[in-house]
Amino acid sequence: MLPIMKLRSLLLLLISCTASRALAADPPSPPPNIVWILAEDMSPHFSCYGEKSIRTPNVDALAAQGTRFSRAFVTAPICSISRSALITGCYQTSIGCQNHRSSSAKFPITLPDGIRPVPQLLKEAGYHTCNLTFDDFIHTGGSVKIAKTDYNFVWDPAATYSLMNWAERKAGQPFFVQIQLNGGKFRGQAPGPAWPEKVRATLGSTTSPADVTLPPYLPDDETIRADWAQYLDTVRYTDWEVGRIVQHLREAGELDRTVIIFWTDHGISHVRNKQFLYDGGIHVPLIVRGPGIPAGRVRDDLVEHIDITAATLALARLPLPTQLQGRDFLAAHPTPREFIFAARDRADETVDRIRCVRSAGFKYIRNFYPTRPYLQPNRYKDEKAIVQAMRRLHAEGKLNADQALIMADTRPREELYDLTADPFELHNLAADPTHTTTLTRHRQALDDWMLRFDDHGRTPEPEEIYLNYLTDERPENGRNARNEILENNIQLMLRWSKEKPMQP
C-alpha cells in the first residue's frame, strides 16, 4: 500500500494533468452562418434538375458542392401564404394564415402562443439577422431596409431583423441572412423589350422562343412561347445572382463557415401552376451547401419547405419548439415523410379552397368549390398575357383536350394522378376502380392531416373581413386604388358565395 503522502501527490498530479488537458482542448466551434436564398415564382428549371433549353452553371455548382433535393414542395402556391408557413415552420392552415395577405389593421391575425418567426428566435440566440435584397447583400456595409416579408400576421420587425448589414455585426457573431431574389417576377405580366435588354446587358444573350420546350398542357402559341423564353431568362439571371452571392461570401472569408439554402417560394407563375396544387405550382428546387452537408448528393425523399425552418434552428443548435410542424430534414437520421401536404385558399379577390396530399408516386387533390371554374376571374392573373392567350385560344376552339382541362367551367370533386406515368397530371384516375385502394389511402391521409392540424379554411372568410381587406385596405396595386375589374370580381365572388358555395 502506498503511503498517504505519496497517494495524495499522485492524486494532485492527476487532477493537474486533467485540468491542463481541458484548458488545452479546443473550445466548442461556433454555430455556422446561415444564408437563405429565396427566389420568387420559379420551378426547378435548372440544368441540374434536367432543364435542357438553358445552362445554369452557378446553381449546378452549388448542387455539386452540396446536396440537391429532387422532391421538395411548398405548402402553398402563393407567396404570402408560403412565406407565412416558412417563417413560422407551421402549415399556414393551422395558424389562420391560409388566405393571401389576410392580416389587416382592422382585422389583425396574431400567431398562436409559442409560435414566433424563426429569425426572431435566432436573433434572441445571438445571431445577427437580416432580410436583404440582392443589391443590399452584395453592397456590404451600412444600414439596410427589410426586404420582402409578406407575412399574413402581426409581427415585430425590430425583434426580428437588424437594420445594419451583416458585415457590420459584432466580431465573431454568426449571421442569418435571407436574400430575396425577384426570380420569375422579372419578366412582368407580358413579354416585352425591357427584360430582354437587361438580360443581354448582364448575360450577353437571351433565350430564343424557338428553343424552348413547352409542357403539353400549353399550346404552341407565339405569346406563350415568348413568355416561356423570358421566364427561362429569369432562371438564368437568378443563376447569375446565386454565383455573385457565393463569390461575395468567399471574398468575405465566410463561405466555408456558411450553410447556404437555395429554393423558391412556389412554382412558375403560369396558367395552371402558381395558385394551383399541381406540381407546377408546389414543386420547387432545393439545394443545401455548407459545413457538414454531403457534397454531390441527390436525395429523393419528400421534403416540405417548413422543414427548412426546423433545419435552420437545428443548424443554429437551438431546440425545436414543440409547436413546430416542420422536421429537421438535415438531421443525421431524418424522419422520412410518407406524404407532403399543400393548400390554396383566397388569392386576392378570388375565393377558393383546394387541398392536396402527395406521396412519392401519387397526388390526390380535393376541390371544395367544384361548381366553379378552375380559372375563376382574378385581376392579377387575368392581366397576364399568357392567360389572355389561353382564353382567346379556348374561345376559338384551338386547344386540345389536355390544354383545355384548365379552362373547364366546373371541376371534379376529387383528382388522383399517377405521377410516374403522368408527371404533368393530365389524366384523373379518381373514378378508376383499379385505383380505389390508392384513392382511399390518400383521401384518408388528407382527412387526417386537416383534422390533426386544425384546418382553419373549413369555413369561408367572413364577408366583413373579405370586404374590409379588398375594398378598404386594398393592398394590390397601391392603397385605395379603384379598379372596375376588381370591383366586378368582388361582386361576382359575393354572388357565387350563395350560388356556388363551398362544399364540405
Describe the structure.
By secondary structure, this protein is of the alpha/beta class. The chain is 34% helix and 14% strand. The chain has one domain: Alkaline Phosphatase, subunit A (3-Layer(aba) Sandwich). The protein contains 16 helices and eleven strands. The strands form two sheets. The chain has a seven-stranded mixed sheet with strand order 3-4-1-5-6-2-7, sandwiched between helices. The radius of gyration is 25 Å and the shape is globular. The termini are far apart. Residues 1-24 have low confidence and may be disordered.
| Continuous helix count | 16
Mean pLDDT: 93
Radius of gyration: 25 Å
Q: How far apart are the first and last residues' alpha carbons, in Å?
A: 85 Å
Q: Residue share in helices?
A: 25-40%
User: Low-confidence spans: pLDDT under 50, at least 5 residues?
Assistant: 1-24
Tally of individual domains? 1
Helix-and-strand structural type: alpha/beta
CATH topology: Alkaline Phosphatase, subunit A
CATH superfamily: Alkaline Phosphatase, subunit A
Q: How many individual β-strands? A: 11
Backbone shape = globular
Order of helices and strands: HEHEHHEHHEHHEHEEHEEEHHHEHHH
- Provide the β-strand percentage band: 5-15%
Assembly form of the protein: single chain
CATH architecture: 3-Layer(aba) Sandwich
What strand order characterises the main sheet? 3-4-1-5-6-2-7
The biggest beta sheet is recorded as: 7 strands, mixed
